Amino acid sequence: MDKLVIEGGRKLSGSVRVSGAKNACLPILAATLLTEEECVIKNVPDLKDVETMLNILSALGREVRRSPGEVRILSGKVNNVTASYELVSTMRASIAVLGPLLAKYGKAKVSFPGGCVIGQRPIDLHLKGLRALGADIRVEGGYLLAEAERLTARRIYLGGHFGSSVLATANILMAAVLAEGETIIENAACEPELLDLANFLISLGARIEGKGTPTIKIKGVSSLSGTTYSVIPDRIEAGTYMIAAVATGGRIFLESASCEHNAALIDKLEEAGGVVEEHSNGLDVYRSQPNIGSIDITTLTYPGFPTDLQAQMMTLLCISEGISVITEKVYPNRFIHISELNRMGAEIILEGATAIIKGVSRLKGAPVMASDLRASAALVLAALVAQGRTEISRIYHLDRGYEDLEEKLIALGANIERKKDSKKTNQLTG
Q1: Does a cis peptide bond (omega within 30 degrees of 0) precede residue 45?
Q2: What domain range includes position 117?
C-alpha cells in the first residue's frame, strides 16, 4: 500500500496538461461493444478505472491493444456476456456494459454493483429504462440477468430522487441506438461526458438528436460501424488544478481545459478572489488578492456546481476569510473528508447535508486517510497549503482518477513523494 508525503507551503506555478476525461472514457469504452468493427480511442488516461474497463472488455472476448494515450479495440464479437463480480465489484461504472451487451447480443449477465462510500447510488433508473425498452431483468446470485430478443423504442422519463443520472442516461442511450423505432429520453443528464458519449455513438453511425439537452431522441439502427475518436479533457482534473492555483496563491496554465465545461466552478473561484483567463489552448488561473473570500455553494447536476469538486472546494474554503456554507444536493452523505480536514486544523461542522466552514489562517500537516477519489484530491490540496508535513494513506483512490498526479504536481513546484505505507488498510470500492 502506498502513501503520499507532502511538505506544504509552496506556491504552484507552471503549465500542466489536462488528461482525457475518466467519466467520458469509461462509457465510451463500454460502447465499443455495440459494434463488431475496430474502434480506436485516443486521449485515454492511464488510470486504474480504465484498466478495469479494459479487463472487462477482454474478459467478454474483445481483443484490446493499448499504447500510451490510445486504446485499440480490434474487430470481432464477444464470446461471453458475463461481467464477473471480481471485476465489477472494483468499479461501479462497470454497469455501463449492461446496455450495450443487451442491445447487441440480446442478453447480459452483469454482477450487481457494490456499495459506495459516498452514499447510496442505486441502479433503479438503469433497470427502469432498460425494462421500458423491453428487457426482462431479474437478480439471481448477485447478478443482473437481462434478456431481450430486440429492444423496442419507448418514451422514457429518467427522473431520480436527486435529479438525472449520468450513468443511467448513458446505459439507456447506448441500448437505444440499436432498438427498433425512436426512443425519447426525458430528464436526461446533460454532463459534458454524456455529450462526448453521444458524439462517439454518432461517429459509429448512431442517429441521435438533442445531445447535451434534457430530451434526447434516438432513432435505432440495425448495426454500427467502427471509428477513431478522441476523448474530451477531464473537467474534474482541470477543476482540481484550478483550485490548487487559487489555494496556493500560485499561477497555473491548464492546457486544453475548457471554460464551458467548468463555468460553475469558475464563477465560484472568481467570487472567492481567483482569476480565470481563457485562451485558445487552455486556461490561466491565479489569485487576484492576498486572501481568499468566503462563499456559499450548492452542488447540483450539470450545469450546476459539480459534486465531484465539492471536497476540493471545501479545502480552499478552509483557509478563506469568514464563514462559508456548502450544501450537497447530489450525494448528501459525501462528507467523509470533513473529519480528516479537521485533523489538519480546519473548523468545519456538519448539519445534515450542509457543511459550515469557518476559515482559519492556515492548516497544519498531519497523518490523514483518504476515503474516496475526490476526498483524496481534497487532502492533497490541503497538504499543499498546510504548514509542515502531511502523510496521506489509502491513495489507491487517486490512481483511479488522476493520471500522473505526483509528476504533474512536482513539475508545478510541489514537494511530494510516494512511499510504501506499512499500515494495513482495507480497500473500499465505489
Answers
A1: no
A2: 22-230
Whether residue 426 lies inside any domain: the answer is: no
Does 116 qualify as catalytic in the annotation? yes
Catalytic residue among 39, 116, 190, 318: 116
CB 17 within 8 A of CB 405: no
What distance in Å separates the CA atoms of residue 42 and residue 49, rounded to the nearest whole number?
16
Using a cut of 0.85, tell me whether the model's pTM lies above it: yes
pLDDT band at 428, cuts 50/70/90? Answer: very low
- Indicate the residue among 176, 198, 230 that finishes a domain: 230
What is the tens place of the pLDDT at every residue in 169-193? 999 999 999 999 999 999 999 999 9
- Clarify whether residues 226 and 240 are in a common domain: no
Where would I find the H helices in 106-233? 124-132, 166-176, 192-204
**Has residue 425 been placed in a domain?**
no
What is the distance between the alpha carbons of residues 405 and 145, in angstroms, rounded to a whole number? 38
C-alpha cell at 350: 456538519
Where does 125-281 show beta strands of DSSP type E?
A: 136-140, 143-147, 155-157, 182-186, 207-209, 215-219, 227-230, 251-255, 274-279
Going by C-alpha positions, the residue among 156, 163, 171, 157 that lies closest to residue 201 is 171
Q: Is residue 430 part of a domain?
A: no
* Domain contains 243: yes
